[in-house]
Design a protein that fits this description.
356 residues, alpha/beta, Purple Acid Phosphatase, chain A, domain 2, 2 domains, 5 helices, 21 strands
Length: 356
């Protein structure tokens, strides 16, 4: 049996509106993949929404509708992550447990599948505490375990040794330390929580982070290709299905020639580009970039959002948006320097014909 999975969607609108539509498109494409694989089962590794606590009503309705459609195609094992813990108890994510074909994992459980009788999936929701996670792993290791089983563990916690943090840098001190033998009774450990897809050895077993299906922020740039993961329940072979969603890039400019060259480039269309000024008084003619419609100056950053709605060669015919963010590197509480930064933002807006 082929068992597709995705994790850490973090459906949100807090960075830019197009990210919300991208997140919804992820669910559509996952449903299409499930149909293509002719499977009746799938797994979600946790953190469907970004917000912890209250969810904006449009995000709630649209996100719920997509999962309602998905569960008509497959039966979902749904693990709960750290973003599913609300400020006052249950989070809106638990509403999916009311759907007929969603098995919501609120406490550790073991799953078996008729199409793969030797495949045993042990699932532990987010613990956020190393001692608690260790106790849960020990408790579930032998639960409903039979001789000859292919034992797979799914968690939603970090595991030490992963690439995490800003730009997914290597941080061996982050996450649960499984010790030398903690995972050795499992043939494979799958995990949500960290967004960079990766695999390495830890605790006596292979640890594989499912990864987020798309890049969410600038800190994700340069990571492994994002998408979906499919496990063959007979061989435990893993296949990654990369998806074509906008990615993040960062470049530095220090001369007008750099800016002119950037304006002529088509390399970043339909993606998110972060441009860093290396000189405070650099002149940037934003009129050379098509359809600029928003310019903002906030805090110590200058950000200019450029929307370029351009159809790409995409089998689903979507219209994706590209953005450029311009940041002037000024980190100081000096009021005079702050004024100069804001003046630069006003100058950018004036050149673009946009009023702040």
């Amino acid at each position: 049996m082929l068992l597709p999975m995705f994790s850490d969607l973090h459906n949100h609108t807090w960075t830019r509106p197009s990210m919300a539509s991208n997140c919804l498109a992820v669910v559509d494409e996952f449903r299409i993949l499930c149909k293509k694989l002719e499977t009746r089962h799938a797994v979600f590794g946790g953190d469907y929404w970004e917000a912890i606590g209250k969810i904006p009503i449009d995000s709630l309705e649209n996100g719920y509708r997509k999962i309602e459609e998905l569960q008509r195609t497959v039966k979902l094992v749904w693990n709960l992550g750290n973003h599913a813990r609300g400020n006052d108890g249950d989070h809106a994510e638990v509403v999916f447990g009311e759907l007929k074909n969603v098995d919501l994992v609120r406490t550790p459980r073991v799953f078996r599948f008729d199409a793969a009788p030797k495949f045993r999936l042990a699932v532990i929701p987010y613990q956020g505490d190393n001692h608690a996670l260790e106790q849960q792993i020990k408790a579930i290791t032998d639960t409903d375990r039979k001789k000859g089983d292919r034992n797979v563990l799914l968690i939603h916690d970090g595991v030490r040794g992963a690439k995490v943090g800003p730009d997914e840098g290597y941080d061996p001190e982050t996450g649960f330390n499984p010790g030398e033998h903690m995972f050795e009774d499992f043939d494979l450990v799958l995990a949500g929580h960290y967004h960079n897809p990766q695999a390495y050895k830890a605790g006596g077993s292979r640890v594989v982070f499912i990864g987020a299906p798309l890049e969410h922020k600038r800190g994700d740039r340069g990571s492994e290709p994002r998408g979906f993961l499919v496990i063959d329940t007979d061989s435990l072979k893993l296949t990654r299905y990369p998806m074509k969603f906008p990615t993040f890039a960062q470049i530095e400019v220090s001369t007008q020639a750099d800016v002119d060259e950037l304006c002529k480039s088509t390399e970043y269309k339909n993606n998110y580009l972060h441009v860093v000024y290396k000189k405070e008084r650099l002149s940037f003619d934003t009129r050379k970039v098509d359809a600029l419609d928003v310019t903002t100056a906030t805090g110590y950053e200058i950000k200019t959002e450029v929307r370029m709605k351009t159809k790409i060669d995409d089998p689903f015919g979507r219209v994706l948006e590209g953005y450029i963010e311009l940041e002037c590197e000024e980190s100081t509480d000096d009021p005079e320097r702050r004024k100069r930064v804001l003046a630069l933002g006003e100058d950018i807006a004036k050149r673009a014909g946009v009023n702040l």
